[in-house]
Amino acid sequence: xxxxxxxxxxxxxxxxxxxxxxxxxxxxxxxxxxxxxxxxxxxxxxxxxxxxxxxxxxxxxxxxxxxxxxxxxxxxxxxxxxxxxxxxxxxxxxxxxxxxxxxxxxxxxxxxxxxxxxxxxxxxxxxxxxxxxxxxxxxxxxxxxxxxxxxxxxxxxxxxxxxxxxxxxxxxxxxxxxxxxxxxxxxxxxxxxxxxxxxxxxxxxxxxxxxxxxxxxxxxxxxxxxxxxxxxxxxxxxxxxxxxxxxxxxxxxxxxxxxxxxxxxxxxxxxxxxxxxxxxxxxxxxxxxxxxxxxxxxxxxxxxxxxxxxxxxxxxxxxxxxxxxxxxxxxxxxxxxxxxxxxxxxxxxxxxxxxxxxxxxxxxxxxxxxxxxx
Length: 374
Ligand code: PLP
Description:
Aspartate Aminotransferase, domain 1, 2 domains, seven-stranded mixed β-sheet, four-stranded antiparallel β-sheet, globular, binds pyridoxal-5'-phosphate
C-alpha cells in the first residue's frame, strides 16, 4: 500500500519529537501541582516559569503577558468576551466575516447579551484593508479583532496598520494568530497588538493547550474563576507537561523558522508546477502575502467534498471549502465572505503542507489530483 500522506497541517500538526520527550518527565515523575508550596512542587513551578519565558521570548512579549489557556478557541473567547463584558457602556466590537468560528461564535454570544458587533467583509483577495476598517470604526468601538492569517486561504492581514487605526480611536486590538505563530515571524511589539491568540497543536505542540498574550495595562475580565493560577485571570491546575511541550515545540519551530519556510515554499511551488505540467486547470485562491504551505485551490464545476473523499481513499488527507448534505452544498463562510462564485466555491480544496512533508508527498498529491480531475 502507498505511504499515507498528511496534508492538512492547518487542521493540526504532528507533535515535535523534542516536545514529546520534554513532556514525559512532568507526567510520570515530577507530577506535583505547580501551585503548591512544598518542595515537590518546586520543579514543576520552575518549569512553568521557564516555559512562560520561552514563549514570551518567541513573540517578543514579557513573561507576565503570557496567559496559558486550553487552546485557540479559549483564547479567542476570552479576548472577545473578556473585553465586551467588561465595557459597561456597551461599546461595539468590530471583527471580520471570515474569522474562525471561535471568534465568530464568541461574537454572536456577546451580541445575544446586547453588546453590538460589526462584521467586515474581506476583499476578493482575502484581505481586510485598512480602508475597510476606517469605514467601520467609530469612537464607540471598544475592540477590533482581525485574524493574523486566514485558516482557509492563508492570506496574511495588514495587522500593524489595522492596529494603528484601532489605537487612533482608543480601541483595543486583538489578533487570532493561531495559524501564524511558529510558522512566520510574530513580534507583538512590532505589530503593536494588545492581545494575541495562539494554539500549540498548530505549531507541532500538544493538543488542548495554547496561550493568550495580553499586553500589560489591558483591562479585561478573568476568563475562568477559581484559584489564583495565571495571575488570577484563568483558574485551574496548570497542565505543566502540555505547557512545557508547547514551549519546546515553539522554540524549535522558531529556531528553524527560515529553513522550515524555505522547505514548505519549495514543496508548494513543486506542487503547482506539477499541476501545471499535467494540464490541470485550477484557480489559486488568496492573493498577496500568504502563509507558507496553505494552498487553496478551486476546480471549476467539480465537487470539493468528492475530491476530499477520493483523496482519502488514496491515503491522502486534505481539507475542503464546502460540505454537502443530501440536498445542498454548504459553502464555507470564508469563501462566501470573499464572494467566490458558487461553481468555483463548490470545487474548492485546501492542501496545507508542513515541515514534515516531503517531495514524495507532493508527487502523491499531484498524481491523485490528476486522476480525480482529468
Ligand atoms: N483560530 C484559528 C484561525 C484556527 O485555525 C483554529 C483552529 O483551526 C482556532 C482558532 C481554534 O484553535 P484550537 O483548535 O486550539 O481551539
